[in-house]
Amino acid sequence: MKANSSTGYALLAVGIVILLFTFYQAYTIFNELMTGTFPLLATQGSGAAQQAASQNVSVQQIVGNAVSSALSGLHINTYATIIILLIVLELFASIGYKFAKIGVETLKAVPENQADKKQKS
What we know:
With 121 residues, this protein is mainly alpha-helical. It is built from four helices and no strands. It has helices at residues 2-35, 47-53, 59-72, 78-120. It is elongated and about 70 Å long.
């Protein structure tokens, strides 16, 4: 029975972590959309001109520029990109929910098995 309870707690923890990560990413995307700093909405110049303008370039800016240039080459509408991001976030949220639900169901099943053993003895 101890294996079932530890498995249940592990699944519950994994599900909650996935859900929290998903909510954080959704908040980040929403915040970027509202402030206008979303990579596809922001005005974009050439990557070399941006790097020359600022001497203090962070890894996040480099990755953002690379993603923006890669996505701009796909000719996907900005709104279509946002919808794709929301679908991916919904997929992550459903996976986290399923993990948490299975963990809770596993934890609920443990006391029932222990009560059945007590009645049989």
